[in-house]
Amino acid sequence: MIKKIKIYITLAAVAFSSVSCLDKYPEDAIPEGDAIRTVEEANQAVIGIYAYMKNPNLYSGLLTLLPDLQADLAYAVEGYTNTYGNIWRWDILPTNTEVEAVYGTLNALIGKCNFLLERIAVLEQEVDDEDYEKLQQFKGEALFARALSYSDLIKMYCKAYDPATAADELGVVLVSSYSNAGTLKRASLKDSYQFVLDDLAQSATCLKPDENENDESYYDTLYFTIYAVNALYARVYLNMQEWDKAIEYASKVIDSRKFKLSSTTEMIDSETSYYQYMWQYDHSTETIWKVGFTTTSYGGSLGQIFFNYDFNSFKPDYVPAEWVLNLYADTDLRATTFFQFYRTGYEHGLQWPLLAKYFGNQEFYEQNILHVTMPKVFRLSEQYLIRAEAYCQKSNPEYGKGANDLTTLRQARYSNYGSASLTEENWFKEISEERVRELYMEGFRLNDLKRWGQQGLVDGFTRKPQANTIAVGSSLKVDASNPLFVWPIPQHELDLPGSQVEPNESNK
Fold first, then answer.
1. Chosen domain end from 423, 439, 455
2. Are 171 and 191 a contacting pair, CB within 8 Å?
3. Were both Cys, which of 11, 124, 264, 331 would link to 275 (CB 3.0–4.6 Å)?
4. Coiled coil located at which positions (predicted)?
């Protein structure tokens, strides 16, 4: 029997009806002593951090869309608006506005976290035990937000992690203090990853597990929990090629029994499966953490470029790659959830499956708010994929265990599926293709290609023209050594007075 979904909104709900005083930091020069002087003000600052996560430069926009558009998952349609065209064409300069926006927004979020953490350190000396415990929760959330932000900066602006060379590769500028940021200089890639791990370790001591482990309900969370901490641990360790650690932390999430893969065959009502409900209404049994929206406070429109629907016709900027569509078996019910066949409104009349996955939350659509979907930054399915790959990547591979995880995932997605079989010869093809099927347009592809390229498992990618796509960019061969797998550091960051930030190879 499917357990009920428990929707946690304790802190995040307030974020959509109030403005945090922390939104003034670090952009506005208000004296530090005039803000976050009480536990309640610290609570409001945490709410501000959650609210900032809605920024369309992050998960409801650029940080989710651009890594997949830059790779090989979608094609620009003839007649498109040129939205993100430079990214899609690999014409990426240090002055690119999207590159600047992602970098600046993540660093601004880190600044908010640093300010709050400094103020919490002061308040900890002044409060009673009850308020001290509240502050520990707030600290855990701020530490996690900082760890997540740095992990995403590393993902976009640093090379793939190689344990043998990470100490000599450029990482990110690490700032742990709001009042004393120090010299703007990039740490090593090894130290940058260690900073993320240290933040996660501290966050884990503050964010306690569910007190009622036998509670018969699933999470569907808008705020950070220990399960999100473990999910990010697993993701980071996979990138670091720490296979046993990736398995350990993915297992903590999977074995917690607080999440269940949303089935494509079990129905929430007569017409809608649990899997369809996850994308149509943004509630599910497998969401570990999502960015919460309401119809009066939301972020970007993930589906806009895939539809551009004006209540009359569809003029998508981008359509799914044909090779991706061909990956789905007839019994794979993700395909009918993700893609719907439409005739576009262009003069050329292209008829193609469009990305229905991001058509938008139906409750928002009823308010004439189109293509808005709550970003599901951590889902249980990713943890199964992390663990399956890590089992196969180990020096002594455990293909059977990897196959069990792949089987579990597919049985939740197919109308009828038996069992997967992984071997030394086929494991990479099976798992890499499954990551495309499951995580399509959720922002993983560019980093996957980058890390697999570093390991010698792929050599970049090739685009081949398909119907009614623009010529420039549709015949593109990108080798794994291409420096633009790593985004350039924004030029204004390099030009700041006193900056010692080193450029990437892609800056040159």
1. 439
2. yes
3. 264
4. none
154 within 8 A of 189, measured Cβ to Cβ: yes
Identify whether 292 is part of a domain: yes
Q: Give tens-digit pLDDT for 201-258.
A: 999 999 987 666 556 567 788 999 999 999 999 999 999 999 999 999 999 999 999 9
**Residue 502 amino acid letter:** E
Amino acid at residue number 326: N
Phi, psi at 377, each rounded to 5° = -70, -35
Question: What residue type is assigned to position 73 of the chain?
Answer: L
- pLDDT tens for residues 143-173? 999 999 999 999 999 999 999 999 999 999 9
Q: How far apart are CA 25 and CA 178, in angstroms?
A: 10
Are 178 and 31 contacting, i.e. CB atoms less than 8 angstroms apart?
no
CA-based end-to-end distance of the chain: 58
Mean pLDDT value across residues 412-422: 97
Q: Cβ distance 156 to 102 under 8 Å?
A: yes
Q: What is the pLDDT of residue 14?
A: 33
Domain containing residue 485: 10-52+94-208+476-508
Torsion of CA 255, 260, 265, 267, to 10 degrees: 150
Average pLDDT of the segment spanning 329-347: 96
Of 337, 339, 279, 349, give the one whose Cα is nearest residue 313.
Answer: 349
Q: Give one DSSP letter per residue of 274-336, joined into a string.
A: HHHHHHHHS--SSEEEE---BTTB----TTHHHH---SS----SEEE-HHHHTTS-TTBTHHH
Q: Compute φ and ψ for 166, nearest 5 degrees.
A: -60, -30
**Does residue 186 sit within a domain?**
yes
CA distance 277 to 355: 16
Here the CATH number for the domain that contains residue 165 is 1.25.40.890
Same domain, 178 and 262: no
